[in-house]
């Protein structure tokens, strides 16, 4: 077993960091404690998959360090990125609920660490405490709301506005934060995969947005000059 495969215990001190996520913070204390106690930490090297599309539903997950790309590849091998997950965003609830195979790949963008709560253990706990299924449903509903926003943007908005809205969505942690981050770390190539366009098109849109005063480009990150407005 290599270092990236090791299952590490979850320190109690991590609980406070996990509570910076709106969903986790809204869960009852008993459920928060159960997720921490049942979970283990898994380290991933850059480019290493946490799970693959079609793989077994093995648990509920939360990024605790680094960042993960969630997406898939088309028949020509082109990557499509649906989400870029950072600490302390939770994911994997769809397969957690229905037990069907994973819907997408989850791959470490950089050296990362993920909290994994095994599905079987969590299901057993929820059988004893069924009232907490509502909390799992809240997590799924948050993702569904984000999906509706993205679908609307694809159908109605020009690329420049889609880029800006996706950056604002990223700054809000896909709904996991009360306050948007002012600076977003996401590669233009990744942003292009999210939007289904070329990197050159994203680069042009970013420069147009910078000229408008909506953002400022820095090395390795993008500063949103008005991250709150229109973030949803």
Number of strands: 12
Spans where pLDDT lies below 50 across 5 or more residues: none
Rg from alpha-carbon coordinates: 18 Å
The name of the CATH topology of the largest domain is Jelly Rolls
Strand order across the biggest sheet? 1-2-9-4-7
Q: Return the average pLDDT rounded to an integer.
A: 87
**Individual helix count:** 9
**Level of helix content?**
40-55%
Please state roughly what percent of the residues sit in beta strands, choosing from under 5%, 5-15%, 15-25%, 25-35%, 35-45% or over 45%. 15-25%
Report the end-to-end length measured between terminal Cα atoms.
42 Å
Q: Which outline best applies?
A: globular
Q: What's this model, at a glance?
A:
The protein is α+β, with helices and mostly antiparallel strands. The chain is built from 9 helices and 12 strands. It folds into 2 domains: 142 residues, Jelly Rolls (Sandwich); 67 residues, Winged helix-like DNA-binding domain superfamily/Winged helix DNA-binding domain (Arc Repressor Mutant, subunit A, Orthogonal Bundle).
Model description:
The chain has about 230 residues and is of the alpha+beta class. The chain folds into two domains: about 5-145, Jelly Rolls, CATH 2.60.120.10; about 160-225, Winged helix-like DNA-binding domain superfamily/Winged helix DNA-binding domain (Arc Repressor Mutant, subunit A, Orthogonal Bundle). It has nine helices and twelve strands. It has helices at about 15-20, 20-25, 30-40, 95-100, 120-130, 135-155, 160-170, 190-195, 200-210; strands at about 5-10, 40-45, 50, 60-65, 70-75, 80-85, 90, 105-110, 110-120, 185, 215-220, 220-225. A five-stranded antiparallel sheet has the order 1-2-9-4-7. It has a four-stranded antiparallel sheet with strand order 3-8-5-6. Strands 10-12-11 form a three-stranded antiparallel sheet. The protein is globular and about 55 Å long. The mean pLDDT is about 85.
